[in-house]
From TrEMBL:
Keywords for the protein's UniProt record, in alphabetical order: Hydrolase
Membrane spanning residue stretches: none
GO terms of molecular function: alkaline phosphatase activity
Name assigned to this protein: Alkaline phosphatase D family protein
SUPFAM superfamilies: Metallo-dependent phosphatases
Domain named PhoD-like phosphatase metallophosphatase: residues: 84-296
PROSITE patterns: PROKAR_LIPOPROTEIN
Length: 344
């Protein structure tokens, strides 16, 4: 009885003097919809069993939000107990724990955390895997992302002229298979990429949106066409449909985010009929990068190709007549590799 009385009294003291008990990782995942975002960090490709040296420099940049872009763990299994163990190991990483203790987290998957390398709609454990990923991200049990097929979802932050909409696209759950010859994927000219339900949802998210900036993220690259690995361009009809949808709706301030490639780069593309260029930032290689990739072709690339461990930072200046976006690709010891700024 004395212990219960002391606990109640101590709780009253904490509340009265404005102290707060530290939030759990899942609690820290909640960001008020009214919060105006001016700094977002993002990245992809993290193995739980490799050194993870980038969490400290990421925190040095004081992000308000962290966005996973896929391969958040390397599951590569149909055994959900194994996949869960790997997610648990990632959550127990001391550097990542520091991040989740202070920074809300959202994200989407790519192939390895989905469950199979370069996998698509035929992966047999995709329903179970979806729930494990959402558990890892701390998505509430009531989240709409738990109630439909596919892991796609959207988040709106800020209000008025400082509103941002973040749209996370699932490029795995509904994606038809690809054929590969001599290390190159053969384009699937008519194949499904997002699935009709997700396409319809995406159009609703864009139609009439009042957001000043639209961040659209997917595990694989949207704009580049020339590289031989996974990309939207492997599904030319779907890629055209995506950019046609942007032209039709003309949402304000589109910025694309992608991962997968173990490189960092910035691409710029202006579809015919779009009133401004669309920028894509690829940030990939939190724990391992393609150091042997010294400059593959990409006619849309702006600046250099980064083949070192890297993460991305998006700074938004709301004080200018139109929002100004500054994109940075950074690495170990917070070294700056790429720095591009643009407005819409």
């Amino acid at each position: 009885m004395i212990k219960v009385y002391f606990f109640v009294l101590w709780s009253f003291v904490l509340v009265f003097y404005g102290c707060k008990v530290p939030a759990s990782n899942q609690d820290s995942n909640i960001l008020s919809a009214n919060t105006s975002l001016s700094r977002i960090a993002f990245g992809s490709c993290s193995r739980h069993d490799l050194p993870q040296p980038l969490w400290s420099p990421i925190l040095e940049n004081k992000p308000q939000l962290w966005v996973w872009l896929g391969d958040n763990v390397y599951g590569d299994t149909e055994d959900m107990s194994v996949l869960k163990q790997k997610y648990d190991a990632q959550k127990q990483n001391p550097g990542y724990q520091k991040l989740t203790a202070s920074v809300p987290v959202i994200g989407i998957w790519d192939d390895h955390d989905y469950g199979v390398n370069d996998g698509g709609m035929n992966y047999p454990k995709k329903t179970e895997s979806q729930q494990l990923m959402l558990d890892f991200l701390g998505e509430p049990a009531t989240s709409s992302r738990r109630k439909h097929e596919g892991a796609y979802g959207s988040y709106v932050y800020g209000s008025g002229k400082q509103q941002i909409k973040i749209i996370l696209l699932d490029g795995r759950y509904f994606r038809e298979e690809l054929r590969r010859e001599d290390g190159w994927y053969i384009a699937n000219e008519t194949g499904s990429f997002l699935g009709e339900e997700q396409w319809n949802w995406l159009e609703k998210e864009l139609t009439g949106s009042k957001a000043a900036i639209h961040i659209i993220a997917c595990g694989v690259q949207f704009i580049p066409e020339e590289q031989r690995f996974e990309k939207w361009a492997n599904f030319p009809q779907a890629r055209k449909r995506f950019f046609d949808l942007l032209v039709k709706n003309k949402p304000a301030g589109v910025v694309l985010l992608s991962g997968d490639r173990h490189i960092g780069e910035v691409s710029r593309y202006q579809p015919e009929g779009m009133p401004y260029p669309i920028w894509e930032v690829t940030s990939s290689g939190l724990t391992h990068s393609s150091t042997n990739n010294t400059g593959e072709d990409n006619k849309y690339r702006v600046g250099a190709l980064v083949n070192q461990l890297n993460f991305g930072i998006m700074n938004i200046d709301w004080t200018t007549p139109k929002p100004t976006v500054n994109i940075q690709i950074r690495g170990k010891e917070n070294v700056l590799y790429l720095n591009e700024s643009f407005s819409f």
